[in-house]
Request: fold
Amino acid sequence: MTVATVAGFPVTVEEVDAREAKLRAGPGAASLPAPGTSAGRQLRRWLTQLVVTERIVAAEAAALGIGPADAPGVEDVLPDAAARLEIGSVAAAALADPLARALYRHLTEGIDVSEDEVADYHARNPLRFAAHRAGRHGWHAPVRTAPPLDEVRPAVAAQLRGAARRRAFRVWLDARRAALVELAPGYEHPGDPRQPDNTHRH
Reply:
């Protein structure tokens, strides 16, 4: 059975079964939803998204002649939990692969932020990059004075640049999925409001 196609090439149910079996044999197995439940079906939909994303990455990297040798480290692309939330769980999981990170670098290395954007961010968040002061008994004392822009400019620019690059990669990936991927009924995106297991409500 085909659960999806990527540029016309099939993704089989056996591939999703193998991914699920590997997860259920791993150290986090106890936290996974039971098979056959609504949450269990959502897990399979998420795994399908991961497989098709990996296929897109492999195809695009091959077309561009990109290999994993020059990949940045995971911490350079996804430095913290906020970065993983920004880019989305599927893209974050795909970026564990050096080939995906090499493609990420290729697609985003030209993205930068302006001096005005850096200055504006610092003006709106003056204490964001202030150094913590040591307080009594190991606690951090509240920061009361904003550092001058020149002191924190590299840190502000790095944060904004990273966020802009993650946003660009996410938008690119969403566009490639829309262009290349067809999903079979029952394997829709977990967030698709048309599928019956989507429990997100407003």
About this structure: The chain has a mean pLDDT of 93. The chain has eight helices and five strands.
